[in-house]
Amino acid sequence: MSNKRKQSKNKARAEPMKKRTTAWFCSTDAFDVLTCHGYTSLSHNPEIITAVNSIAKLIGSMTIHLMENTEDGDIRVRNELSRKLDIYPNTNMTRSAFIQWIVRTMLLEGDGNAVVLPKLKRGLLEDLNPVPARMVSFVPKTTWDYRVDINGMSFEPDEILHFVLHPGTSYPWKGEGISIALRDVANNLKQAAATEKGFMQSKWKPSIIVKVDALTEEFASPEGRRELLNSYIDTTQAGEPWMIPAEQFEIEQVKPLSLSDLALADMVQLDKKTVASILGVPSFVLGVGEFQREAWNNFISSTIMPIAQMMEQELSRKLLIKPEWYFRFNPRSLYNYELRDMAAIADDQFVRGIMSGNEVRDWLGLSPREGLDELVILENYIPRGMIGEQSKLIPSNEGGE
């Protein structure tokens, strides 16, 4: 029995393995639909990456404040936790780079999701480690619950920071990106760039056409045509006239096809405006139109701040234990204001006793000075606590006015 088994094994090894192939029959139109030609990711599109980088840089440039709710209003808390998050949330990354990575991942590679894994040491926050999107998978448990797998390790949602750009319709806890909305526009922009490149490199753009009698022997071969050009048209000096036989040559000047004739610039501008509309950035960020201060400030309020507030809430509910504390991005430096307007606002608040002199100087970006911490009020700029001691308010029989 053993010999038979050996013989059967040897026979099986000697026989070559049969390769299985699969064939599909489809029409030409179906083949064009099923196959992908020249795929380019959104991160490789110049217009899309310009808009995404603009959003990411602006959010990354905002300082992160640790705030505390009090009976008299919210105050800023300065401790090691606030310093950690605002300056070096990751050992190898600054706050700006860290926030930019989160925003870029949500908009592009993460398809609406970005995951950060906190690292704790003795109950204290040591690091916030960004996790690449290709290493993360979201596994639904139920419609309202899920787990996150990172390189084969499972984590509960409260063990990681999960930033969601647009809540999904099927799973509200999972984000939905913008890749589907931008796919066709990105293909159009790619085709426009290829068309322009091919047009500029094309050799079929002569500025002069010379009509020659084809019955001549010289015109019969490429060498003969070159000899004709060298004999009659090729000159040694610029502006030198041509001497040509009237019976054999007829010269016409033609206007070559230009990019304006193709209306390529108009289509590209339309696609750029579409990209700007989908991403929520002003069109002048992509080079279409002129800068407008109102549009820029609206961009900060309607696009930058909603993303920043989503990140504030995720950081506050996952990293903070004290219920009175919360994180807040400071957007004041992002708005485009005239220095004259800022000075007018500060002066108006100063004379009403709402801002002190040092707060006004900080508003304008100046360093504080000694003696400007008291609140003063209209007219004589006296300390607010001495308003009732003015001589005009004291009766005349007591020595006042």
How would you characterize the overall build of this protein?
It is built from eleven helices and eleven strands. By secondary structure, the chain is of the alpha+beta class. A three-stranded antiparallel beta sheet has the order 2-1-11. The protein has a three-stranded antiparallel beta sheet with strand order 4-3-8. A three-stranded antiparallel beta sheet has the order 5-6-7, with no helix packed on it. A hairpin with a 2-residue loop joins strand 6 and strand 7 (153-155). Helix 3 packs across helix 5 (95-107), helix 3 (46-61) runs parallel beside helix 8 (264-279) and helix 6 packs antiparallel against helix 8 (264-279). The mean pLDDT is 78.
**Morphology:** flat
Order of helices and strands: HHHEEHHEEEEEEHEHEHHEHH
- Unreliable segments (pLDDT under 50, ≥5 consecutive)? none
Task: Quote the beta fraction.
Answer: 15-25%
Radius of gyration: 36 Å
DSSP summary, beta strand count: 11
Instruction: State the helix count.
Output: 11
How far apart are the first and last residues' alpha carbons, in Å?
Answer: 130 Å
**Helical content class:** 25-40%
How are the strands of the largest sheet arranged? 2-1-11
Class by helix and strand content? alpha+beta
Tell me about the largest β-sheet. Answer: 3 strands, antiparallel
- Average pLDDT rating: 78
